[in-house]
């Protein structure tokens, strides 16, 4: 079976700061501090490992923080193939998590990756990428002056017929669709930007997704947050409603949803089962205090509560 590679160009350590309620201009007392992994690609790797699916985490790390990122991934039984460089430090993010579930992220920019650094990384990746493998591009690449850095990597491996799963935003996403990724996961604002017109009704959204699929994108998963998702996949349209849960932290839910899609499609599950799984693990993630991972037993319970209609 084809290998799955997650790509994280700007990984981080997420320092989670828990407190009852954040108030500005006063001293806030923390109830606890927990370090986790930052960088959406690393989150996808961990989620896939929880689902029991082998995968390879790739990216670029720097310094002692980079060593810690590699160690944290290795503990999750993930095949870690990060390029490790010295002379700088991978970033540290700070997440302020309130008891209400509200979360504020203070994110560092990360180590600058110029064109030469990306060329070197592509050469580093080359021996690991096989014919028909899955490449998952997820999250921030603002540390790259070239906003179209993902396109450069996709072009480098296009002749190997890789399947690209793209979770990006803004100009990066708009440019990426030119390379015909297998799957994209926009929100409504991003889909509107891709289509160049205002989308107000569900039918307008679905028509826009169908038009976009005509460019060669096989799966379009439109995230609607806690409301669920609209999906256009292989010529079929689905409306998926998420189960109601007690939300403790919304960070990482989108990564869980993407992970479920990657898992289901890689394992050749029926689309309905794939969507049910992806939605359930996203909901289970929302119940967790952490920024990455989910309770697989809770996700299994929630699968039966996912509502789905083919449109």
Describe this structure in words.
- By secondary structure, the protein is α/β, with parallel strands linked by helices.
- The protein is 34% helix and 25% strand.
- The chain contains 10 helices and 14 strands.
- The protein is globular, with a radius of gyration of 19 Å.
- 44% of the residues are buried.
- The model has no long low-confidence stretch (mean pLDDT 92).
Summarize the structure.
Helix content is 34%, strand content 25%. It has 311 residues and is α/β, with parallel strands linked by helices. The model has no long low-confidence stretch (mean pLDDT 92).
Secondary-structure blueprint of this entry?
Layout: E1 4-8, E2 12-19, E3 32-38, H1 40-50, E4 56-62, H2 63-74, E5 79-85, E6 91-98, E7 103-106, H3 115-125, E8 134-138, H4 149-156, E9 163-167, H5 170-176, E10 183-184, H6 188-195, H7 202-213, E11 219-223, E12 229-233, E13 236-241, H8 253-266, H9 271-286, H10 296-303, E14 307-310
Parallel strand pairs: 1-4, 1-8, 2-6, 4-5, 8-9, 9-10, 10-11
Antiparallel strand pairs: 2-3, 6-7, 11-12, 12-13, 13-14
């Amino acid at each position: 079976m084809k290998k799955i590679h997650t790509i994280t160009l700007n990984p981080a350590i997420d320092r989670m700061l828990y407190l009852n309620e954040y108030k500005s201009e006063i001293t806030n007392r923390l109830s606890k501090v927990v370090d986790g992994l930052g960088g959406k690609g690393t989150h996808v790797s961990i989620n896939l490992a929880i689902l029991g699916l082998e995968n390879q985490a790739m990216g670029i790390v720097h310094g002692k923080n980079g060593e810690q990122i590699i160690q944290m991934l290795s503990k999750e039984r993930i095949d870690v193939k990060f390029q490790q460089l010295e002379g700088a430090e991978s970033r540290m993010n700070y997440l302020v998590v309130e008891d209400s579930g509200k979360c504020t992220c203070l994110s560092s920019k990360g180590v600058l990756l110029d064109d030469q650094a990306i060329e070197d990384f592509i050469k580093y990746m080359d021996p690991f990428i096989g014919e028909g493998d899955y490449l998952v591009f997820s999250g921030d690449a603002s540390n790259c002056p070239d906003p179209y850095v993902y396109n450069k990597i996709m072009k480098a491996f296009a002749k190997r017929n890789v399947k690209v799963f793209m979770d990006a935003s803004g100009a990066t996403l708009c440019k990426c669709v030119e390379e015909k990724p297998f799957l994209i996961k926009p929100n409504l604002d991003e889909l509107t930007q891709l289509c160049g017109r205002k989308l107000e009704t569900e039918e307008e959204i679905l028509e826009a997704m169908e038009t976009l699929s005509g460019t060669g994108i096989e799966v379009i998963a439109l995230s609607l947050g806690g409301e669920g998702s609209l999906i256009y996949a292989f010529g079929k349209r689905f409306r998926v409603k998420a189960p109601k849960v007690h939300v403790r932290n919304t960070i990482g839910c989108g990564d869980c949803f993407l992970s479920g899609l990657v898992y289901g499609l890689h394992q050749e599950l029926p689309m309905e089962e794939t969507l049910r799984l992806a939605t359930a693990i996203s909901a289970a993630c929302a119940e967790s205090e952490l920024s990455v991972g989910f309770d697989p037993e809770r996700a299994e319970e929630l699968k039966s509560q996912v509502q789905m209609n083919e449109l």
